[in-house]
Amino acid sequence: WLRNDFLVPHLNGETYIHKPPLLFLLIHAGWWVLGVNEWWPRLVPALFGLGALFLTRSLAHQLWPGQTGIAALAPLILLGAQFWALFTPAVMFDLLLSFWVLAGLYGALRATKDEEKPLRGWLITGVAIGFGILTKGPVVLLHILIPLLLAPWWLSGHSGRWWSWYAGMAGAVLLGAAIALAWALPAALAGGPEFAKAIFWGQTAGRVSDSFAHARPWWWYLALLPALLFPWSVWPSLWRALARLLRRNRLETGVRFCLAWLLPVFFAFALVSGKQAHYLLPLFPAFALLSARALVQYQNRRQRPWPVAAGLIILAATLFSMPLLQSTLSWADWLADLPQWCAVTVALLGVIVLVAPQFRQGAASVVPLYFASLTLTLLLSAGIMRTAAHAYDPRPLAQELAMLEKSGTAIAYVGKYFGQFNFSGRLQYPLVVISRAELPQWIRDNPDGVVVQVLRDSPPPAAAPLYHGPYRGQEIGLWRAGDFQG
User: Fold this and answer.
1) Residue 397: CB atoms within 10 Å
2) What pLDDT is attached to residue 362?
3) Greater confidence, 357 or 237?
4) Rounded-to-integer distance, Cα 135 and Cα 309, Å
């Protein structure tokens, strides 16, 4: 934004190669209309999350025409999943990617419905692939192409020839590549050889090879699923309905489509050792659609969701005990300040879930748990996130840096820097980033400068800091360069 350069992304004055530019361009578009602010970047992923709910509903209509109950239920299950709801306001790439994955699959389903004129559907898929690449790179191909390649298994009754299906898919990929290259080629020319090599190699083969760095074991996602899918992961009625649906001798097209989307992509991510929980967010709509289909047909008796209630009460006990155990176990300091009303309210929510009237079928059975999940999201935000905010808030130090910058003081950051103070302090110039070994020379060159250092591996100077505060479970300080002498 400061550089007035919307072609090549930069972070702290250096070209940024780790993600494509779409999220940043959308943030800039809002700033161009509304001025630079903090709320618009948070709203961008939330708007795409909202769009994903509508696309999930549209997919349900494509897969099960005329069964409005499934289309009504699937968005509730999706937004009711705790992990999805918590990520909705996060300035991350994954809800944007989820939107484009849904759009791409929707286009392919449109192509199957109109076999005489499938071009419109494949155009939608191609545009979705292109913008998906511009959101998070070629990973969008994994999400979209795997279920489409398996079409002979799930697309029963296809009257056309399969060569035409795969030709349409290839055309969509070429269109998506053309959209991505419309940015990548001029950006490569403007960014220079190193930037070009990074976006064409680092975002493809280089990123894949880095993924096999033995970061996490193959079963890591499986162990995490109960937490990611809460409360649905501990609702017995849902899993009984899913079991009955999958035991059928002949699975219908919609169920096969969801399985061809969900299972192979999940196992592909499990086999790649570089794992993050939010990588799975684009698969949540597949789970929601499959669950909605099962519940509409097979949930035919009332059963109190006692495991959900038990999970909420266990969470409440955990929240209640954290302030008491913080000093004993040397946990993060902010845990000592967790409000007890949050634990009490979560426990009360568990009791309400247990005693609330139970409904037999369809959306009515999901609504109580849906509202309980959203209430829990708000409680966690108001209780835990607000309490922890001061330990993760870069603004106090960023404001100090902004004042020093205005006075012309040289500033150096020791260690790995993520650009976390530039926006918070509205800094006009990049910070100088140096290693611990480079610090003595920088001090000699800038005796009137200041140094930012996280207090982790190196002891701080004996002199009082200009600023000292919490930083991501640790501490960070700001000292005059002369304080490091000796």
Assistant:
1) 22
2) 55
3) 237
4) 38
C-alpha to C-alpha distance for 57 and 147, rounded to whole angstroms? 19
Average pLDDT (354-378) is 75
Q: What is the DSSP string of 291-313?
A: HHHHHHHH--S----HHHHHHHH
| Cβ(112)–Cβ(70) below 8 Å | no
CA atoms of 155 and 261, how far apart (whole Å):
13
Structure tokens at 5: 């350069």
How far is Cα 141 from Cα 282, in angstroms, rounded to an integer?
12
| Sign of the CA dihedral with 264 first, then 268, 270, and 276 last | negative
Quote the percentage of the chain above a pLDDT of 90. Answer: 44
pLDDT in tens, 180-197: 999 999 998 988 888 888
pTM of the model: 0.89
12: phi > 0 → left, psi -120 to 50 → alpha, else beta; which?
left
Between CA 383 and CA 78, with CA 84 as vertex, the angle to 5 degrees is: 125
Please give the single-letter amino acid code of residue 101. Answer: V
- Give the contacts of 185 (CB within 8 A, at least 6 positions apart): none
pLDDT over 50 at 338, yes or no: yes
pLDDT digits (tens, 9 = 90+) for 205-228: 544 544 544 467 888 899 999 989
> Looking at residue 33, what is its pLDDT?
94
- Residue 212's pLDDT is 46
CA angle 39, 42, 45 (to 5 degrees): 145
Q: How far, CA to CA in Å, does 114 sit from each of 57, 62, 108?
A: 19, 12, 10
* Nearest residue to 168 via CA among 127, 116, 130, 118: 118
Q: What span, in angstroms and rounded, lies between the C-alpha atoms of 123 and 405? A: 49
What pLDDT, on the 0 to 100 scale, is given for residue 206?
47
Which residue, 478, 471, 480, is CA-closest to 401? 478
**Which among 148, 147, 150, 159 is positioned nearest to 116, based on CA atoms?**
159
Distance (Å, rounded) from C-alpha 30 to C-alpha 23? 11
